[in-house]
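Appendix B, Record 12. Input sequence as logged:
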Amino acid sequence: MADRPRTVDASVRLAARRRERLRRRALRLTAAIGVLVLLAVAGWVVLVSPVFAVTTVTVTGTSVLTPESVQAAAKVPLGTPLARLDTGAVVSRVAQLRAVAEVSVTRSVPHTVKIAVKERTAAYALSSAGGFDLVDSSGVDYTSVAEAPKGLVVAQISGDDERLRRDVATVVTSLPPSARDRAVLVTATTPDNIVIELNGGTEVVWGSAESSPQKAQVLGALLLVKASVYDVSSPSHPTTKA
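Logged structural output:
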């Protein structure tokens, strides 16, 4: 009979521990359910609701293009939640504009899509029937102007030849500063017959665009000698004509 109170105390303590474990489990379950609810609400707000939907599109970096033309090409779907916007698709659409060299698209909470454009830079002005086409260093003609920009060399190419446009760009961008500053006209009748006219009537026979860096180095040295014609078409055997 003396041990009975101990047995009762042990049973009470065991029951209390069980109740505590159940209470903790209930608290953990409640907390987990709360987190799931919060995640669901947050997901709905971000992915479905108009709280973070696109309402504004901004464009920077345009000069040849206009912000409106870039926005038209971008076709950003207004009202789409920012998180669901396919920025890669927007980049691809804007990159199709001929004047665009690079483009980036970023989301700005709560409602803005920012489009940053880097336009092509003219290497030379290609003479055309309606004026001049500006051509970049890769040979892409990306816009037309009525007059050639000051300081930009003019080129005349036979026919609409993509390769010649690219070859002339290679030659123009390879010219040493001493020739580039004096160049006024580049003519290209065939890929192997590219000729550069310098101010004062001096002529540089370049030949093809092949080995342009080597030809440029040779020409830089030849220009130290006064001549009317500099022929670097064969850079290993250059010639001059008085």
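The first strand starts at residue 56 and ends at 60.
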